[in-house]
Specification:
The chain has 243 residues and is an alpha/beta fold. It has a single domain, classed as Rossmann fold (3-Layer(aba) Sandwich). Helix content is 46%, strand content 17%. The protein has 8 helices and 7 strands; from the N terminus they run βαβαβαβαβααβααβ. A 7-stranded parallel sheet has the order 3-2-1-4-5-6-7, sandwiched between helices. Helix 1 packs across helix 8 and helix 4 packs parallel to helix 6. The longest helix is centred in the middle third of the chain and has 29 residues. The structure holds NADP nicotinamide-adenine-dinucleotide phosphate (NAP). NADP nicotinamide-adenine-dinucleotide phosphate binds next to helix 1 and strand 2.
Amino acid sequence: MKYALVTGGSRGIGKAVCLKIASDLKYNILLNYNSNTEAAEEIRAEIEGLGVKCEILKFDVTNADAVQSSIEEWKSENPDSKIEILVNNAGITKDGLFIFTSKESWKSVIDTSLNGFYNVTQAVLKDMLRSRYGRVINIVSLSGLKGNPGQVNYSAAKGAVIAATKALAQEIGKRKVTVNAVAPGFIQSDMTKDFNEEEFKKLIPLNRFGEAEEVAELVSFLASDRSSYITGEVININGGLYS
Ligand code: NAP
């Protein structure tokens, strides 16, 4: 039984990724979320409608012990299953000018994206290395490449994950485990629902926000064996806003 673990799979980009990997690659899904149980249960039913299994793993990616114990417990209950795909998608924003950024806003944004990457990847990587196959895909951001005013914390967090992606890819390539990052621009989701799309879209050559499903297409390709010679890459998906 092959599984794809998607963190933050209950809404937005993570939800679209779960559906796409289930429908394209026929992997079973381990759907992680943090707080929104109703959203997670709804999406589980939708995924199972595609003919694969979907199990929900509720943990906060910032809590190393919770991540470790939840994944270990799942592994001991499912000795014949393995996680071949990991999508580190969970992320939050707490925007504001740097001079007004509280320690809490700084820490929570970095904890979710960067320490979340560390905690979850640590918990699944050994098995991928042992079986000499795996796909790790980190959802980063345009902000982590270009830097975005009002998002110094988020730019720092995503920039760090980009660097970690490149370094880890070099460490483990020999074991046929690939590590790539996907850097979206403006994508319609709860995270961007308060943004003025009419104003922002003027900056975007394709003249619109992207859809979560468009990001999921790219993630699904990177998660498949069709992407076998791509590792350590950061792939932009931003409507031409930045390259
Ligand atoms: P979203 O709609 O706000 O969804 C965020 C997801 O992450 C939810 O499923 C949420 O779970 C989960 N999550 C948040 N904190 C978590 C934690 N501590 N532990 C476990 N799960 C947690 O966000 P989105 O727009 O889909 O963004 C997904 C990823 O893409 C993020 O990494 C984001 O930084 C990145 N991104 C988004 C955009 C964009 O324009 N939307 C652009 C660039 C990059 P609950 O439902 O339980 O809260």
